[in-house]
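Query structure, 365 tokens:
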């Protein structure tokens, strides 16, 4: 029977337990995306808190792909010294860390990038058109940017990479017919919508070699009218089965929900259910063989245990509770299995947006 604190492997990576810190934008990098001592000590704290696998906040793979202020970058070799410091401090603390690599697509932050956002297609909004459709050259340049970022991760000592294809950012936009209105080979059918993602996965795999852990994060559904649904997710993950992906993290919703103030369709949905994407995970496990990390709303130790024992997921991925309590996993391991203190209200975003770094604003009792 699988247990939460057993040792497992993902490709060449050995993990001490089944807990993953889901990628979390910390808002703690320098304006140019380089690491800061504060960001590195947070990673070290998570390692000391016995998180089995730390996934960094999303790191932008090219200047034009930056999506948030004080976001970590992976777009240049100039960033290598800081990234190397990060992996060294985590490894010294006995932890494992992988770099999440991302492009904002239509949700790139044009005030920060100084460029018009680009994505699969122009997006019509109530405020007018947003961004423009990428040219073939730009698509190929983006594949290269993801690949170079993955190689940088390897050079900096990360234990793997996670390609961000969830939450309505670039690759997730291509996957979803809500955003992707193309009628060339990158749109119009699920195979075409998956093409750029598959090109990124294959190109990264080629560049980092067979032994290096390459993971992806995708949506179970984006909850948008005419968007990406669970059947689409199953088709995409089936395509990925032969692509050399080592693990899949299943999430849901989009950043669009955050823009329009509706957290119910965002990736950090408020809701009654404990485990936001459990039904999708169950369908995934029935059909797909790639190890699964499930994220979203998981707050109770007993629920974590149930999910692993029942085979709903292989790994438990958690974001907001670790903002509140970086030592949560160690606490659970020590036998104090009270629920995570996090109340999932997303108030932690605000200090990040204000440039103070993401933290839990609620006073500890
Ligand atoms: C402040 C904040 C920043 C986030 N940044 C990222 C990110 O960089 N990449 C990503 O894939 N998801 C990001 N997420 C989403 C989380 O990884 C996670 O999928 C979501 O919060 C649901 O999990 P939870 O209920 O355990 O918080 C972020 C969430 C929060 C609250």
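Result returned for the query:
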């Amino acid at each position: 029977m699988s247990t939460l604190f057993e040792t497992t492997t993902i490709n060449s990576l050995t993990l001490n337990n089944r807990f993953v810190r889901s990628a979390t934008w910390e808002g703690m990098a320098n304006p140019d995306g380089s690491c800061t001592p504060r960001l590195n000590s947070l990673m070290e704290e998570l390692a000391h808190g016995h998180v089995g696998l730390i996934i960094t906040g999303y790191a932008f793979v090219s200047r034009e792909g930056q999506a948030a202020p004080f976001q970590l970058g992976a777009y240049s070799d100039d960033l290598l010294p800081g990234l190397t410091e990060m992996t060294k401090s985590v490894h010294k603390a006995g932890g494992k860390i992988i770099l999440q690599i991302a492009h904002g697509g239509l949700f790139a932050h044009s005030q920060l990038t100084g460029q018009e956002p680009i994505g699969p297609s122009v997006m019509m909004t109530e405020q007018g058109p947003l961004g423009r459709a990428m040219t073939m050259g730009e698509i190929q340049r983006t594949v290269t940017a993801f690949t170079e970022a993955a190689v940088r991760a390897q050079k900096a000592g990360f234990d793997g990479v996670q390609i961000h294809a969830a939450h309505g950012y670039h690759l997730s936009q291509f996957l979803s017919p809500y955003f992707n209105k193309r009628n060339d080979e990158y749109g119009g059918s699920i195979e075409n919508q998956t093409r750029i993602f598959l090109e990124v996965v294959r190109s990264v795999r080629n560049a980092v070699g067979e032994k290096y852990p390459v993971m992806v994060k995708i949506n179970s559904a984006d909850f948008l009218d005419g968007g990406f649904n669970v059947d689409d997710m199953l088709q995409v993950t089936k395509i990925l089965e032969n692509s050399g992906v080592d693990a899949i993290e299943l999430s849901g919703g989009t950043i669009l929900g955050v823009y329009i103030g509706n957290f119910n369709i965002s990736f950090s949905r408020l809701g009654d259910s404990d485990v936001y994407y459990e039904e999708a995970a169950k369908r995934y496990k029935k059909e797909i063989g790639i190890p699964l990390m499930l994220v979203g709303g998981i707050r109770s130790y007993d629920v974590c245990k149930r999910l692993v024992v029942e085979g709903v997921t292989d790994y438990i991925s958690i974001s907001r509770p670790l903002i509140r309590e970086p030592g949560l996993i160690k606490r659970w391991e020590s036998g104090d299995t009270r629920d995570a203190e996090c109340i999932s209200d997303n108030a932690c975003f605000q200090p990040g947006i204000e440039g103070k770094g993401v933290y839990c604003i609620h006073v500890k009792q």
